[in-house]
Write a structure and sequence with these properties.
Order of helices and strands: EHHEEHHHHHHHHHHHEHHHH
Oligomer: single chain
Membrane topology: Multi-pass membrane protein
Pfam families: Na_H_antiport_1
Helix content: 55-70%
Shape: globular
Distance between the termini: 26 Å
Number of domains: 1
Function: Na(+)/H(+) antiporter that extrudes sodium in exchange for external protons.
CATH topology: Na+/H+ antiporter like fold
Transmembrane segments: 28-45, 72-90, 111-134, 140-162, 169-189, 195-212, 311-335, 347-373, 385-404
Structural class: mainly alpha
Protein name: Na(+)/H(+) antiporter NhaA
CATH superfamily: Na+/H+ antiporter like domain
CATH class: Mainly Alpha
């Protein structure tokens, strides 16, 4: 008997589909708040009271003795985004340990797509800026990351009936390339490294790991240790958001045998994810957007001036051209070399729509822009305009592509959600045979 050929974006398990749907609902709300924060920042920065916006960003808070007397903009970038990356670390670890992506064949597609979506935009950016000089090359990582909240919010509006496998693909791709971005930040955007604080961070990190591995949930024990890890990583010169990823990876996914085994209920990673995702999506990312997205459009950093800068051109090109090409090319190569066929309910135009949506690079792109060129500098303001422009164009282009497929998505959705035996599990997840393209 001939084995069935592998399928790209084949239907996953029902528990995984439910979990992804729950994440999408939370990230959709977070995306709406992110947009609200960015719009408010833009309006305030271009109002007669723009000076008060800059004064707010410059307010300094924190103990000077510990070198943590940072302005609010720095606290948002270094502190609040550490929560965002903590949740991203939890999500990625859970996906690969207990989710459908523990299957190497399933994991290969979003991981390869994320790599392609990092490499091609970076190369395209460098191709644009290298001939212009002026130090623009150090911004090569700006167009490499997909904004999870922003992209999923757009997807919720325009791709309501998108099959769950593609939703999982977009979510995993966004998480993986955000983590690739944080690795890039740690390696390439650490100007001054102090080894002693970095080594010192291993002590509270080890204690945190020891406690969570024993399924300790007491916030009064874990939170001071997490804060110590963050403060020491910050003092080392490595961007403090790296601490969030390390802490997320330390949390176990499966329940312990003493707690009843993996079938007894959610593990600690899922528990923390439920607790911290609302804080990340509802507070951390929107506040960062509010304190980072404000740029005066009528001054020297206006759109006409900003988009004439080769750096800005490279960022826009990387987001709206490099990202889709990189994601599509990597996905196609996986299909080509594994001889996998696209699932029968899908078409390559669906993948293209998601690849274009991957060009929304808002949160991490703004962060890398500040690290590369400095907050408040002329070129830093040009990067903000470019990121906003590229992300908006990517969202609009994805809307056009995915709207065309909306009718087909609805038909697939109706098939997948049919529950003729009324057991609260769609029949398609109980059928051994794939859904035919009827």
């Amino acid at each position: 008997m001939t084995a069935n050929p592998p399928r790209l974006f084949s239907r996953g398990s029902w528990p995984e589909a439910r979990r992804i749907a729950d994440i999408l609902r939370k990230e959709t709300i977070g995306g709406a708040l992110l947009l609200a924060g960015a719009v408010l920042a833009m309006v305030w920065a271009n109002s007669p009271w723009s000076g008060s916006y800059e004064a707010l960003r410059a307010v300094r808070v924190g103990p000077a003795a510990l070198h943590l007397d940072l302005d609010l903009a720095a606290w948002a970038a270094d502190g609040l985004l550490a929560i965002f990356f903590f949740v991203a670390g939890l999500e990625l670890k859970r996906e690969f340990v207990a989710g459908d992506l523990r299957d190497v064949r399933r994991a290969a597609v979003p991981v390869a797509a994320a790599l392609g979506g990092v490499i091609v935009p970076a190369v395209l950016y460098l191709a644009v800026v290298l001939g212009a000089g002026g130090g623009g090359a150090k911004g090569w990582a700006i167009p490499t990351a997909t904004d999870i909240a922003f992209a999923l919010a757009v997807l919720a509006v325009i791709g309501r009936y998108l099959p769950s496998a593609l939703r999982t693909f977009l979510l995993t791709l966004a998480v993986v390339d955000d983590l690739l971005a944080i690795a890039i930040i740690a390696v390439f955007y650490t100007a001054h490294l102090s080894p002693l604080p970095l080594l010192g961070a291993l002590v509270p990190l080890a204690a945190f790991t020891w406690l969570v591995q024993r399924r300790v949930r007491s916030w009064w024990l874990l939170l001071p240790l997490a804060a110590a890890v963050w403060a020491l990583v910050h003092a080392s010169g490595v961007h403090a958001t790296v601490a969030g990823v390390l802490l997320g990876f330390a949390v176990p996914v499966a329940r312990s045998e003493q707690a009843g085994g993996p079938q007894a209920g959610p593990g600690l990673a899922e528990h923390f994810e439920h607790r911290f995702r609302p804080i990340s999506a509802g507070v951390a990312v929107p506040v960062f957007a509010f304190l980072s997205a404000g740029v005066a459009l009528g001054g020297p950093s206006g759109p006409a001036t900003a988009l004439a800068d080769p750096v800005a051109i490279g960022v826009v090109a990387g987001l709206i051209v490099g990202k889709p090409i990189g994601i599509m090319a990597a996905t196609w190569l996986v299909a080509r070399f594994t001889r996998a066929d696209l699932d029968e309910n899908l078409a390559w135009v669906d993948v293209a729509g998601l690849a274009v949506l991957g060009g929304i690079g808002f949160t991490v792109s703004l962060l890398v822009g500040e690290l590369a060129f400095g907050a408040g500098t002329g070129r830093g303001e040009h990067v903000k305009v470019a990121v906003l422009t590229g992300s908006l164009l990517a969202a609009l282009a994805a809307t056009v592509i995915l709207r065309v497929r909306n009718r087909a998505y609805r038909r697939i959705h109706e098939i997948e959600t049919a529950d003729r035996d009324h057991d609260s599990i769609p029949d398609v997840y109980q059928d051994d045979q794939p859904v035919n393209d009827r």
